[in-house]
Write a structure and sequence with these properties.
This protein is an alpha/beta fold. It is built from twelve helices and 14 strands.
């Protein structure tokens, strides 16, 4: 059987002195086959998958990795093209109906597909059963905060995470934020939103909710205040029960780290401080549960 040709268009995003420059390379032809070229491509993408486990690797390659059927499907349904996909040999040789559909979509989108042995993929899946395939996705465009800052009549619900360090929690909060009506996810400190675990636990929400990371908390609070966006801080003690104080149609909900919550120096600066009533001697809700409750209250009619 002759090798199948695939076209891959690479997008390079470079940040220089605060300005974003986007360069799109010319399409280049790749070959999927069992020959030396196919082996070289496979080894190349396996190595990139290893490297993008780190922040430095993701920054260097300007992409991140996703795992399993659901995330590949969500990527295919998004406006963000996959750079390449590595699948287990068996997926090509004896695909299930779901795998057949994914392969057909990858072919339609001219995405390079490489195969790997089971043990090679297990280095990345680590026994998880989301599906024997890994993808590389160009780093997603950052949310445009100025859109909400300048359109002062525009309703918005912004979710702000401060020093959230667990990538699993961060990914789950993408999913919760999207499901609960957040317009964007703003990240101050903490972990990289494109960490493999964050992408995985987002269950595809990473492609749906605009994300802006690397923000300075003092600057952000000043910007929100100037734009008449009401700030709400989630605090464990001495706040108002959420159902007793309805926020405005333009607000930003701040959630703190899993272990320490929001910094004390921030808490006095919020327009509203919310505390969720609890029963028993439990210290606090999990950050994901608390965020779901508070976002529900923000958007409750």
């Amino acid at each position: 059987m002759p090798p199948t040709q695939h076209i891959l268009v690479a997008t390079i995003i470079v940040l220089v002195d605060g300005f974003v420059y986007i360069s799109v390379t010319k399409p280049c032809t790749w070959l999927q086959s069992q020959n030396d070229q196919g082996t070289m491509n496979k080894n190349k993408h396996l190595q990139i998958l290893r490297e993008v486990r780190t922040v430095g690797g993701r920054k260097y390659h300007q992409c991140f990795s996703i795992e399993g059927y659901r995330l590949i499907e969500r990527a295919l349904g998004s406006p963000h093209p996959l750079q390449a996909v590595v699948v287990e040999d068996r997926v090509i040789q004896a695909p299930t109906p779901r795998e057949q559909q994914i392969l057909a979509q990858l072919e339609e989108q001219n995405c390079l597909v490489n195969t790997a042995r089971t043990e090679e993929l297990q280095e990345f899946t680590e026994g998880r059963t989301f599906g024997p395939m890994m993808g590389l996705v160009p780093k997603l465009p950052s949310a445009d905060l100025s859109y909400w800052l300048t359109e002062e009549s525009l309703p918005c619900t912004l979710l702000v995470l401060v020093d959230v360090k667990d990538p699993g929690n961060l990914g789950a909060l993408m999913r919760t934020g999207r499901a609960s009506g957040a317009d964007a996810l703003l990240i101050v400190g903490g972990t990289d939103p494109f960490h493999p675990k964050a992408a995985r636990t987002s269950m595809g929400a990473i492609f749906d909710i605009p994300i802006l990371s690397g923000l300075n908390r003092e600057t952000l609070q000043q910007q929100l205040s100037s734009a008449q966006i009401q700030t709400i801080g989630a605090v464990v003690l001495n706040g108002t029960a959420p159902y007793k104080q309805k926020p405005t149609h333009r607000c930003a909900l701040f959630m703190g780290s899993e272990a320490h919550g929001l910094p004390m120096e921030m808490q006095s600066q919020f327009d509203i401080r919310w505390t969720i009533p609890m029963h028993g001697d439990i210290d606090s809700y999990s950050i994901n549960a608390a965020t779901a409750i508070l976002l529900y209250e923000v958007n409750r009619p």
